[in-house]
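anyone seen this seq b4? input:
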Amino acid sequence: MYDKVSTKLEFVNREQKVLDFWKENQVFEKSVEETKDLPTYTFYDGPPTANGKPHIGHVLTRVIKDMIPRYQTMKGHNVVRKAGWDTHGLPVELELEKELGLDGKEQIEEYGLEPFIKKCKESVWKYKGMWEDFSSTVGFWADMDNPYITYDDNFIESEWWALKQIWDKGLLYKGFKIVPYCPRCGTPLSSHEVAQGYKAVKERSAVVRFKCVGEDAYFLAWTTTPWTLPSNVALCVNPDETYVKVKAADGYTYYLAQALADKVLGGLAKEAADDQAAVPAYEVLETYVGKDLEYKEYEPLYECVKPVCEKQHKKGHFITCDTYVTMTDGTGIVHIAPAFGEDDANVGRNYDLPFVQFVDGKGDLTEETPFAGMFVKDADPEVLKDLDARGLLFDAPKFEHEYPHCWRCDKPLIYYARESWYIKETAVKDDLIRNNNTVNWIPESIGSGRFGNWLENIQDWAISRNRYWGTPLNIWECACGHRECIGSRAELAEKAGDPKAAEVELHRPYIDAVTIKCPECGKDMHRVPEVLDCWFDSGAMPFAQHHYPFENKEVFEQQFPAKFISEAVDQTRGWFHSLMAESTLLFNKAPYENVIVLGHVQDENGQKMSKSKGNAVDPFDA
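predicted toks r here
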């Protein structure tokens, strides 16, 4: 009745026989067809990028993703297992840049946007066959013949509907903020993207002498970003802390925090010698509360800043106060450049300081400065040398800290003031937390800890990218300032007065050519140039895969929310977040009921395996 069980356990051959049996007899397809009238159990598959190879870490996720749906099928459910492909975003563009020998946005535009977009669309399928073979080999069952594809116009139109809903609620806005910005890619990143790219780096900070106006004394101020010093417009002290004016052993008179004076100036002390008495590091001349120093003036470090301040008719280069200044590091006096930090920007708004931004979109110092054309990190040592030569550098201590790098191109990010489009997640924070509390997290600590803490401190989502290959942001803008958010192809055709507009491909540069008449002034309105953060694509998959609400309304409602999803722990600030954010904003409910969160497969050095790091093991080799 049964075949004899061989004592030679050739696992690979035996697995292949099982795979062949499943394929020849269409076992997966039959399992779906024969259970179609049973209660639905929905599984969402987080979409991989088809232009990147699978690595051995994906074996673990595929196994867990397959195990629960198999179990639920045996328990008497019809399990929805639709595969999907994440096709937009920087990964595709960067891969294509390498292939075409291009470097940066200028060269992409010289190459031509239309041929570049066509190449992007072709390149996303580079490893599709490898993913399908990989999934089959590990026994992962999913409908790969009818996948959802994020670059499909129907998928994009559903995203446009979603954004229109968010716009109508007043939660989609354009703001001028300090954003994490990648100069190499020329685009801002969202906070959950930044969280994926921190690295420990050793750099030099700067303790700088700022000459007081009207007296022979200096404010000693500290910064970890010397490249921002040409853009300095103020110094900041803590209004409630104690500050001292001291005569130091190096002959200078300084202002600094009392709590940090020994740490900063202690090295100046001289021990007693045979013919000389000991010399203390400093002598306190006067004591102040920080608030006493407010509005005291100092001389600008660089002349290039003066014309900018004069042109804006704003006063700078004086002491400001803010409680964010701590007594744990530095001198207790912080350098302020409002164009390059959130705290700096807040101080700038509070004191109506000049806005000086001597760094361009490529991350290079501008021509107004003595460091024109230098990348910010390359300018750091040159700024220190310049200040030292002018007698304005007190010290340049080395320090090690975690610094954010672009999770895609691996280049250092800068915090940079620019306009970007945001979804106001802070307005639905309570809803996000309440919906998260309905989810069964495994392990529980992820939901209440890592993910829960993330939601407790949620920031508005920077959703726009100044790039090319992505879902076009569906906002049309007029020179008069009027803006409209378009929620469908039909609405676009109606407002454009051209039925053919409904047939235009929803990608750049095609969609950019469609204009609509401004209802306020009658002029042409043009689409804003930005595309969406590709994480918005992934978070839209529950409804966009069905082209909801334009069709398949009942199918979506039957399959939402998911009974089960599973990904690695890094997705707490990636897919888990984008799903929860969009579901809360649109439907005010959690998009998933049960989540199994996995760890990372690591290399021999204990580092997470990653395609970008080049330390990932090919699963076929394994």
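The chain has 20 helices and 27 strands. The chain has a mean pLDDT of 90. kinda curious what u guys think
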